[in-house]
Amino acid sequence: MYTLYIIRCADDSLYTGIAKNLEKRLAVHRNGKGSVYVRARLPFSLVYTEKHRDRSRATKREMEIKKMTRAEKEKLITK
Predict the structure, then answer these.
(1) How many CB atoms lie within 10 A of CB 75?
(2) Pure H helices in the chain
């Protein structure tokens, strides 16, 4: 099972990623060892998650979300 997630960074930007173990991945981000993007924008908060059966489906959905406008992402988060 994979989790697609969106986090809101300190500068109010949104970062989308996928993880097999979400808690572990968030800890890596918090410790400044995750993506360079998030590392430069700490702290952050988890604002959205989706579960997917396999990495392929999670990655396809991640690409869909990354192509969305900011307004579309905000709408998805508030649903």
Answers:
(1) 11
(2) 22-30, 36-39, 55-67, 70-78
Confidence check: pLDDT of 52 > 90? yes
Q: Tokens at residue 26, please?
A: 């968030």
Q: What percent of the chain has pLDDT over 90?
A: 96
Examine the pLDDT at 35 and tell me if it is beyond 90: yes
79 pLDDT higher than 90: no
Cβ neighbors of 70 (< 8 A, separation 6 or more) are 14
Cα–Cα distance for residue pair 25/22, rounded to 1 Å: 5
C-alpha closest to that of 3 among 58, 46, 57? 58
Task: Report the alpha-carbon distance of residue 67 to residue 29 in Å, rounded.
Answer: 23
